[in-house]
Design a protein that fits this description.
Blueprint (H helix, E strand, L loop, with lengths): L1 H12 L6 E6 L3 H12 L4 E7 L2 H10 L4 E5 L1 E2 L2 E2 L1 H8 L6 E6 L15 E6 L3 H18 L3 H8 L4 H11 L4 H8 L3 H15 L3 H16 L6
Parallel strand pairs: 1-2, 1-3, 3-6, 6-7
Antiparallel strand pairs: 4-5
Helix pairs in contact: 1-3, 2-5, 3-4, 7-9, 7-10, 8-9
Length: about 220
């Protein structure tokens, strides 16, 4: 078992070709092999490897940070979110997909929110993960770079910038109406204008807004 784990870790170091790398962190052997087989069949990924514990995952990330992390939260040696926090300390913009058998009990560490692409129910993981990984790879390749976001924010109106930050804080359109005391149709018009300005829409608009809001709140945006 230890030889197998070491072989996987050495193999991860060998993936130096250009492309997207994925790490699956899952301790249930059969599920892990099934999901990893599907990941390896994805044309959008250049590599996919398995870690079965928090410590093994951290070692693999330290040596070769993946672009996409597929993460079980309940691991034998700790909380899977520790793996995700380790990743974001070494990768500027990873995409994280959470696997959970208890979606209703999942409470996300706020530091991870800008990087969570989706949360997948383990009971239907194969089907849902296949969709999520394809979507995540597409977004990862085409995402707006932080510098691009900042430049485009500067050409938004002051009201659009307010709406954009509120979207990044997870506020719904109706909540934004209440906070800014404007009509729902006005909020929707601002959302469309913001999406058009950034060249994105839907879930990716929320993700980009969350990243921008996180950076704004932590003083990481250059004036």
């Amino acid at each position: 078992m230890h030889q197998c784990a070491a072989r996987v870790e050495r193999q991860s170091l060998a993936d130096t070709r250009e492309g997207l790398r994925c790490l699956l962190v899952e301790d249930e052997a059969l599920l892990a092999e099934l999901l990893c087989s599907m990941l390896r069949a994805s044309a959008a990924l250049i590599s996919a490897h398995i870690a079965k514990s928090v410590q093994q995952a951290k070692r693999m990330i330290s040596r070769n940070p993946p672009d996409i992390l597929v993460l079980d939260l309940d691991l034998p040696d700790g909380d899977g979110q520790d793996v995700a926090l380790h990743l974001i300390s070494s990768h500027q913009n990873p995409s994280i997909i959470i696997l959970s058998a208890k979606l209703n009990d999942f409470i996300c560490d706020p530091r991870l929110l800008p990087f969570i692409h989706s949360v997948v129910d383990k009971t239907s993981a194969y089907k849902e993960l296949a969709h999520a990984i394809g979507d995540a790879c597409s977004i990862h390749r085409e995402r707006v770079e932080p510098e691009g976001i900042q430049a485009k924010c500067r050409i938004m109106s002051a009201r659009e910038q307010e709406v954009f930050l509120l979207i990044g804080k997870g506020k719904s359109s109706r909540e934004i109406c209440s906070i800014l005391n404007i009509g729902l149709s006005t909020v929707e018009s601002h959302r469309k204008a913001i999406a058009q300005c950034l060249g994105t829409s839907g879930a990716d608009l929320v993700r980009i807004a969350a990243i921008h809001c996180f950076k704004a709140e932590h003083g990481l945006i250059e004036e």
